[in-house]
Specification:
By secondary structure, this protein is mainly α. The chain has nine helices and three strands; from the N terminus they run H-E-H-H-E-E-H-H-H-H-H-H. Strand 2 and strand 3 form a beta hairpin. Helix 5 runs antiparallel to helix 8. The longest helix is centred in the N-terminal third of the chain and has 35 residues. The relative contact order is 0.12.
Length: 250
């Protein structure tokens, strides 16, 4: 075996190791995020790296990386000398500002996606809607108890997020994607703050269908209007959930 062959083989192995490390880090990140969003880790509870590493059967390093990423989403906070903990619930003012930011970003992204002239935008969005509908139907058909329901509920959330991701990606503007990623974690924080599972999946599905119809028309104003209406209805539903939880906690 020549020196060049050995170097090439080593590079391939390094690439595999790097990819495996990224996949492990992503798995740990998503696992902690799901536990927080589902309320399995209580609001304000400490997040001990060694304990989470044992639970997830991994080393402390990917757990530390995952918690650091989650700090950027707002789901987790870090205090000097105290470590990480689950973020407290959103205040009413924080919630309203978050929804204002979502409306600015997502209505604008919907308009940019149409303006980009991407011929696959509407069809890709329609495919994401079909996947979301399948997830909602599977969730609705399940018994209301058991771990499988939690998995299906998360699948509904993933499908909802994926629908919006199509819009961000079809702007063909990487900076829109970066801003969307930051807000995505805060959106999970709304679910965690409300302490509710999937409660508006069918309403969201109907509103997403209206966005797809507008995308089919190619009318930028229609797409922006449909997205704005969707986000305002999401805001109203989430506000009711949050207000109800605050009253229950009094």
């Amino acid at each position: 075996m020549t020196r060049r062959t050995v170097q090439a083989a080593s590079a391939r192995l390094d690439g595999v190791g790097e990819e495996s490390s990224r996949m492990l880090s992503e798995r740990v990140y998503r696992s902690i995020m799901q536990s927080v969003s589902r309320g399995q880790l209580a609001r304000g509870a400490p997040l001990r790296i060694e304990e989470l590493a044992r639970r997830l059967n991994v080393s402390p390093t990917p757990v530390r990386e995952g918690l650091t990423r989650l700090e950027g989403t707002g789901l987790v906070v870090h205090e000097r000398r105290k470590g990480f903990r689950v973020a407290p619930p959103l205040t009413a003012e924080q919630f309203e500002k978050l929804m204002d930011a979502r409306e600015v970003l997502e209505v604008g992204a919907a308009g940019l996606a149409i303006a980009s002239g991407d011929p696959a935008f509407a069809s890709t969005l329609r495919g994401a809607l079909a996947a979301q509908q399948a997830a909602v139907e599977a969730f609705d058909a399940m018994s209301p108890h058991g771990d499988a329901v939690d998995d299906l509920a998360w699948a509904v959330i993933d499908a909802d997020v994926a629908f919006h991701h199509v819009i961000f990606s079809r702007t063909h503007n990487p900076f829109v994607g970066l801003m969307a990623e930051a807000l995505n974690g805060q959106t999970h924080r709304v679910r965690q703050s409300a302490e509710h599972g999937v409660s508006d999946s069918n309403e969201a599905l109907s509103e997403h269908a209206a966005i797809v119809r507008a995308a089919d028309s190619g009318d930028r104003q229609a797409v922006e209007s449909a997205m704005r209406m969707h986000l305002r209805l999401v805001r109203a539903r989430a506000r009711r959930d949050l207000d109800g939880d605050r009253e229950d906690g009094q």
